[in-house]
Amino acid sequence: MYIYYMEPLMQVYNVLKNEYEEGSHQVDVHEIHHYAENVHSPEVDKLYQDDAVWIISSSFIIFTMHSGFGLLESGSVSAKDEVNIMVKNVVDVVFGGLSYWSCGFGFSYGDYEPWRNPYIGFGKFFYDPTRDYGTRESINQEGWSYASFLFQLSLATTASTIVSGAVAERAKLKSYILLGCIVILIQALPAHWVWDKEGVFYKKGVVDFAGCSAVHMVGGIIGLIATVYLKPRRNRFNEDSVHQMSSPTNALLGTFLLWWGWFGINAGSVWGITGGRWRLGARAAVATIMASIGGGATAITISFVKTKKLQVNFLINGILSSIVSITAICAVSRPWHALVIGSISSVFSIAVLPLLERLHIDDPVGIVPIHLTSSIWGMIAVGIFCEEDKYLTSATNNMSGLLYSWSFELLGVQMLCTVTILIYSAATGFLALFLISKSPLGLRVTDYEEQIGADVIEHGLAGTNVARYVLEKPLSTRTFQTVTKAITKWKMLAKKKSRQKRMEAAKLKRQEEQETYAQSNGVANGTPNGNGTLHHRANATNGTGPPKRNSVAGPAFNNQVAPLVTTPRNPTVRRAESTTIEMEVTEEAGPSNAAPEVSPVNSKPGSAGSRKSISITSSASTATATALSVAAPDSRPSTASATSTVSRKSKNSTLGKFVKAPAPRALSPPLDPDV
């Protein structure tokens, strides 16, 4: 059984050994092509499977870092922009991934032979491994290509996510989408220089296992150029301005997620577990935790010494910057190497903060101390602490750092690579920002939009974000009123259309009811147009005004309820004491235009003709008809039922029966089309 399992592995080992001795193959750590691709044997499947599962699992862990970036950035910016910064992290994966699949991967690892060169790849655009490896003999390489593409895409989109924190609260969303796609393409060339076998710095022997230069340095320097180009946030460096984290809890939770995700980056960057690489993966994981321990301890110490308190931003910067600095050397680092490198990186990240303040460089999330200064130090640290591996000498290109070789060769290569990537990324990043800002899209939001916040402007969100605006900075009364009016105006405009629709529907319904009412009244009175039931004001004064109380000309009631007329009160005259008089109006049989007879309320019920009860409120200045009830003829005795409010007796009150009644309800008469 032992021989059954070991024989195929020994066969693969002998083939690789012969190829290595001939100088035609090396078991490299960073490989787009698997080291066993030239061995065609069914037993090689196990090697591919183990290595592919390792980097696929690492890719899943790296993908969770986008959640960490989102939480860290949303907790670091003001409350009115926290949703927008989360959306930008989603955009980085969506459009950044599209950009990388279409062109970025080809610029990094394209291997079209006629155009292969040390500076840029060509080929593998719109990458499809099945198209490139369609034969059964290359089925293992097809699967490996899918796995390696996923891992590289996860790393590349991290670079654009870094830039999102630098332009927080100032960049338009549409412009940032375009910028993120361009950053992916900018990052593709340093990846080719450092990781591709034809790359200019790869051939020189540069050591960068997990993207210290090709990912973090690119994103960090573009972020610095972007935040300088966009200029500080509104009133950021005023004396009375206080910019604080909107949610330190979210920022710390994001730090934990990033901490976890970096294990996937560093341990996954050994590209498998076969061929002795699992040991490098274990070293990378230990180096990651030890660097973060050193950086965190240093940051806490500095914070207590400097401010007598544990500042949250010091802690976050110290931990994350230390992990960034160890990415270049993680696979060959000893624990004490990582501890020292992480501690020094933490010191640099905190020391650069006063410099940024003095230069008025507004870095809301800490992109410069976390990704830029720490990546520069991480690349230099390789030239000092790098130690050649005993078993996989190709992991460091057969080179060692200053402490182990007393040679400046590796340090020189690392510094040359660092300077080149900084200049290239800064120049191309500035060009991209300049072109976008001069385009119709624009780049920076207006002062009004920045004051309101991207959550409202870009996503239509308000509520708690606006209520928590005070956490960003203290507001003057005038500014607060301006913001409140703007938010109120925005909400009113959002509801205006629906309210207008409801009002139009109600108006149409009322018109239909009035037309139906007029038609039914006209049929009942023998007049087709409904003018048999004219309003009081039309019949009392021949259409020139409202009816008078003692007018002899009145409408023919015809067993219909006539509308009520309310005389408006004079607001400048004090309301006089009022009394209520109940009267009964009897309509005798006769012509419809005869004047009704007005009799006192104590008339006997049940008289011939229809009876109408009118309650009239008299005062010193107004006379208001407040209610009118109609009893149909021969239906039931009429009663004086409609009354109005009685205050107390007045000296000039009219004789009648005084009763208390509910408050009168003012009604408006329907408009008569003939008036």
TrEMBL record:
Keywords carried by this UniProt record: Ammonia transport, Membrane, Transmembrane, Transmembrane helix, Transport
Membrane topology: Multi-pass membrane protein
Localization of this protein: Cell membrane; Membrane
Spans through the membrane: 52-72, 93-110, 146-168, 175-195, 207-230, 251-273, 285-305, 312-332, 338-356, 368-386, 406-436
GO terms for MF: ammonium channel activity
BP GO terms, sorted: ammonium homeostasis
Biased composition, class Polar residues, residue ranges: 516-532, 636-655
Protein name stated in the entry: Ammonium transporter
Organism the protein comes from: Caenorhabditis tropicalis
Lineage: Eukaryota, Metazoa, Ecdysozoa, Nematoda, Chromadorea
